[in-house]
Amino acid sequence: MKMKKSPVIYLLPLLLMLMMTAACRKDLPQLNDPRDYVSANFNEVFDAFWTGMNNNYVFWNIDTVNWDQVYRTYKPLFAKLNVNDSNDVRKAYTYFKQMTAGLVDSHYDISFADTWLADSASVNPAFQRKIANPDFHPPISIFHFYDTIPRHYLSAGVRGFTNTPDKKQYVAVSGTINQNILYLFFSGFNLKTLFNTDTMNGVKRVEQYFFDNLAQRTDLKGVIIDVRGNGGGDLADLNFLLGKMTTRQLQFGYTRSKQGNGRLDYSPWAPAYVTPQPGAKAVTVPIVMLADAWSVSMAEMTTMAVKTMPNGHFVGERTWGANGPLTGNKFYNGGQFSTGWLNLVYTSSLMFKYKDGTIYEGVGFPPDITVPYNPAALKMGRDLQLEAALNLIH
Questions:
Q1: pTM for the structure as a whole
Q2: Residue 103 sits in which domain range?
Q3: Does 340 map to a domain?
Q4: Is residue 80 located within the same domain as residue 191?
Q5: CA distance 231 to 249
Q6: CA-to-CA distance for 315 and 223, rounded, in angstroms?
Q7: Pairing state of beta strands 287-291 and 222-226?
Q8: Which of 172, 229, 298, 309 has its CA 20 to 30 A from that of 191?
Q9: What CATH number does the domain containing 202 carry?
Q10: What total of structural domains would you count in the chain?
Q11: E strand or H helix at 110
């Protein structure tokens, strides 16, 4: 089993900066593109991968992996392998797992183009570390959010799901608890796209319910946004969702990218903001994020952004720890890449730093109130994390 990769997310959240960067891209040094390697033998396979990582990986200043030592150790091992031998191909697969096991990037994932590895899982170091952790637990079932919470906790509300052409399913639930606490759950960040469709869909109906209550109700005592088990998604949802809850620009962190071939050739840190949207309403009641160990990427960044608000709180578990945004290499000299032998090396394009100056990549963002996963309570229909959020509001 491997971690489900979150959909590609984009730069936090400065579209203007993206355009400026793209305009200046021709002035940046050109990388030695890993796709230019022939990959006719394992010497070339290794060189393409090692060089791609050496140039594109954005976390070298905080990562503990000694990449030069990796070269000295594995270069001669790959040189002994025959790219046309299935046993050697599987041995190379093992070497890739060993070389990347300690990488801090928790988005990191390698998929292979070689047909002999078609039945092999992609290499995902963060997931392997997670399942080896004694505190590891499976994600909460989607039926808990879609069925148990509406039956046991919501006094009113709607629920729905949408299947997209790319064969992804998005689930959402919204309602009120005790008549005056507004609750929203959604399984992935594709809110803006699904809301802006010409026809009604299940998730759009839930979003409309939530936004209508948010805008029209004057008696709300709190808002709960539930991103437990949420694998992330489109950055556009950050402003689309939180930009409706604030009337002032909110800085919650910083991003920086690679600018050249050097491992530590970084751009300056650029501020990351939540920007108010047309018709925004300043929500002054408590806003509580519910997140857990399976909250990844945009789920984590949204939690960080809410936590920056004076009325923002976070209840649950430490998040997954994949905070670095991803975008296309046309904007940056860094991030994901492919080679002739590797289908995709999926790695962050940018480094993210929280407003307090801490980089939470690989370690996860900690809650204000920790409430561990409790399978016995869940089996009984009790949600102790949700109840802790309600107690905080009360």
A1: 0.89
A2: 15-132
A3: no
A4: no
A5: 26
A6: 13
A7: parallel
A8: 309
A9: 3.90.226.10
A10: 2
A11: strand 109-112
